[in-house]
Known about the structure:
The complex is a heterodimer.
Chain A: H1 2-10, H2 12-34, H3 65-101, H4 103-118, H5 121-131, H6 136-147, H7 149-162, H8 166-174, H9 178-189, H10 191-214, H11 225-232, H12 241-268, H13 270-273
Helix pairs in contact in A: 1-12, 2-3, 2-12, 3-4, 3-6, 3-7, 3-10, 3-12, 4-7, 5-6, 6-10, 8-9, 10-11, 10-12, 11-12
Chain B: H1 3-35, H2 40-48, H3 53-62, H4 69-81, E1 87-88, E2 93-94, H5 95-130, H6 135-149, H7 152-166, H8 184-222, H9 225-232, H10 237-259, H11 261-275, H12 280-289, H13 293-321
Antiparallel strand pairs in B: 1-2
Amino acid sequence: MKEFAGRFLAHRGAVLGGTILALVLILALAAPVAFPGDPFQRVGESFEQPLGPFLFGTDSLGRDVAAGVAHGARTSLMIGLVATVIAVVAGSAVGGFAGYYGGILDDVLMRTTEFFQTIPTFVFAIVLVAVLSPSIGSIVVAIATVTWPPVARLVRGEFMAMRNREFVQACIILGMRDTAIIFREILPNCLSPIIVTGSLMVATAILIESALAFLGLGDPNVMSWGFMIGSGRTFLRTAWWLCAIPGLAILLTVLSINLVGEGLNDALNPRLRNR
Amino acid sequence: MSVARKRLVYAARRLGQAAPIVFGIIVTNFFLLQLAPGDAADVLAGEAGSATPEYMAMLRERFGLDKPVATQLFYYVKNVLLLDLGFSFRHNMPVLFLILERLGPTLLLMGATLVLSVGAGVSLGLLAATRVGSWRDTMISILAIVSYATPLFWVGLMLIVAFSLKLDWLPATGMESVGMFYSGWERFVDIARHLVLPAVTLSLFYMALYTRLMRAAMIEQAGMDYVTTARAKGLTEGRVTFHHILRNALLPVITMAGVQMGNLLGGSVIVESVFGWPGLGLLAFQSLFARDFNLLLGIFLLSACLVVIVNLLVDLFYTFLDPRIEVR
């Protein structure tokens, strides 16, 4: 564990990313305290400039942009995390069973995975959210549906490699049930690539969520960064900060997650670093 | 069998393998249509402003909506295979014609993006890999990492602010200048000027991806035995880099470019919405708000078919690039 921390901290990008991510997390957690009430409420004149009475100014309806950024952080992080967890669990299950049992089950599961991988992901996400009516639930489902295939492929590869190792054969001889072998023996050994992939998937999920919100497919009752950019779009000429600030928030969050993911990759796969 | 003949057989086989996928998408489309709240009759009656039960029943009968689901599915699949993708109520045109009309601008955007992103990505990756660890390398890597994390729609809007609103160098939206009716060379230049910002926006993300991939691939190739041999033979550094390493490093980049085709279509939805570029993506965006699911699903089907075809083309192109890969 100490070695892991040491390798992670040696990666300067990862440290920077971790710091930014921590700040975003704190902002998200502190939002209801620092900016109490509804972020959709009107707090002042429309189109106040930033660095005036309000830190980031106000938008077309007099809403506080800073409150929007803080509450939007909660939305984006929550959707990103939940969607990724679902995708990782589903993908690992599919990949695990496919890799362990092989044969026809493997074929069927892999054809399904390929099918989902061939479909253009973002268009499919749009179609799903549109059909299911936009809400946090449908967005999470859509993102998870669109991002699980790579996890399945990854886990299947790992399982196929581990399937014939001695420790698995020993478990079989001991009479362990299949599910016990899959979840208690093989899966813990595959965790590193799953964690790295999962962390990068959170970034992708946040990008997809903000794009959906920008197009107007976000949950209308929830403040989100994409929504802020979408609604600020018509005022680009006069109040361009309405689009710039939430966009910067997305950029910094996704960037920090990517950096942390790379740091995790280097820390969990030390043998690749010495190439 | 000659190689050309083998390639044709391979292409035919791959198309055959793609058929179940396309069929699967058609069936998925149908079930998605069923999932949507209300049905076509609801939407149509809503827009017409009247909704007497008799009118709705008449609509349902006309569009076959009162038959059991299995029959509907059969008719739907049959229609799609006969290239009848349904009718768009909002635009009052068959979906197929609507899509074909808008296909051109989207292909233009995607083509320009492909050229720009691969070209820039390969060049930057090359520049970075030839001086690993230098300032140049660090700058390029930082640019790549930041571009990779930037949301497409935001970068598009910021570019509009910078280059259209503040500097007034390039037009903000659309594909052609309204009311100018250019033709010939002037039209070409006009479209090109409108193409710059959308293509650059869409390319940024993929350029970042290809830069990092190219850089990693070139570093990996530089450590291979054949490079040592080439140097031992006395070839110049330039010749080793461009004639030998570059070709091998290009392969993973081309593969990735092919894989990203599907995502490129998704990205074009966003970019076309931001820039008002009259392609398939904008059509999809508009159909969302008209709740014209028929049109949306038609676009979905077409984009999936496009991805399948492009994957096949990339695989065939691969065999030209790397003679070691056998066409099986």
